[in-house]
Amino acid sequence: MNDKNAAHHKVKMTRRLAMALAAGMVLSTAWISDGKAQTVSSSPRVLKFSDHEPLGGMRTRFLKDVLFPAIEAESKGRLKIEDHWDGEIAKAYDALGAVSGGQVTDMATVVPEYTAKELPLHQIFKGFPMGPSGSRQIEFFQRVYAEVPAFPEELEKNGLVHLFFGTGYPVAFYSAEPMENLDGLKGGNWRSASFWHLDFLKNSGATPVTMHWGPEIYDALKQRTLDGLMVNVDSGYMLKVHETAPNVLVSKDLWLGHVYILAMNKSVWDALAQEDRDAIRRAGEKSYTALGPVMDVSFDNQLEDLRAAGATVRSLTLEEVNQWEDGMGVPGIQSKWAEDREADGINAKAALNAVSSIMADFEK
């Protein structure tokens, strides 16, 4: 085994170990109560779950290996999750409709970015260039839902109940040419999916580019019709864009704001016994205690993966990221978005102000 393969093997082992430890942390507290092992029901209620991504990444494996077993354990076996992955039941853009209708699946991972019409206020999260990571990112979303009723209410309007937050990794800038710092964005053609990030790129002096997420991005970087990609670090690695854009700038302070909402059909939720609803909530809280550390380990491992694959990776300093944010005119971008939503009859300004206040607490 050569040095590169050895390093890659070591990273994979570290990830598996982190997930195993997380599962152990949660299940050791889930199965033992007052010193007595909990009994298991012989005829569980089966809840069907749908996810658009394949089983294999950190987020999907966490649900499979940590959260779902915790739900079954906390419910003493009364609940069992029938999991379906890789869009087998519903693709990403169809997930909200699939679970809100209640006929296709009981639970699903819903991504607000894919359903801007149905979840307009949830688009606010991606409107910040900087923010918390790991366990503090989870704390941020929990505070928003606890303190700003408009967010859970927006889900309820769509017939959904939030069960658990999955979150994205920090943003990375993958550049085809060496880029010393974020000043290198100026004059280049840079792709991103989020409408917020397109504005951030434009105000950074780049030409924002919208492209379908797929092999064409890899080809455009190779042909130099695209200079770089602004995306969460793990998605860039999975698409192997580091092979044609091997110069990577990253920071844990670069906020993606991408949230994966594990949602249940509200009628299904309301029909559950109170003890089962309580069990699901307990399983979520216990799983959160393990999620932050797993995300931190996985983030560091991804940077090791990139370096092992031949990419040049540099972590930006907090000062550099602050300077980039200060030069973009973020308040103006946010205000324009809120004004446009107000014109559509959505109370966006109040929600934006509330989220901004919470975010400010995490920047202290």
Q: How would you describe the overall organization of this protein?
A:
The chain is of the alpha/beta class. Helix 4 runs antiparallel to helix 10. The strands form 3 sheets. The protein has a 6-stranded mixed sheet with strand order 9-8-10-7-11-13, with helices on both faces. The protein has a 5-stranded mixed sheet with strand order 4-3-5-12-6, with helices on both faces. A two-stranded antiparallel ribbon has the order 1-2. The protein is built from 13 helices and 13 strands. Helix content is 49%, strand content 16%. The N and C termini lie far apart (46 Å).
Task: Kindly summarize this structure in a few lines.
By secondary structure, this protein is α/β, with parallel strands linked by helices. It has 13 helices and 13 strands.
Summarize the SSE layout with pairings:
Layout: H1 3-30, E1 32-33, E2 36-37, E3 45-50, H2 58-74, E4 79-84, H3 95-101, E5 107-110, H4 134-147, H5 150-157, E6 160-167, E7 171-175, E8 189-191, H6 195-203, E9 207-209, H7 215-223, E10 228-232, H8 233-238, E11 247-250, E12 259-265, H9 266-271, H10 274-308, E13 312-315, H11 318-326, H12 330-343, H13 348-362
Parallel strand pairs: 3-4, 3-5, 8-9, 8-10, 11-13
Antiparallel strand pairs: 1-2, 5-12, 6-12, 7-10, 7-11
Helix pairs in contact: 1-2, 1-10, 2-10, 4-10, 4-13
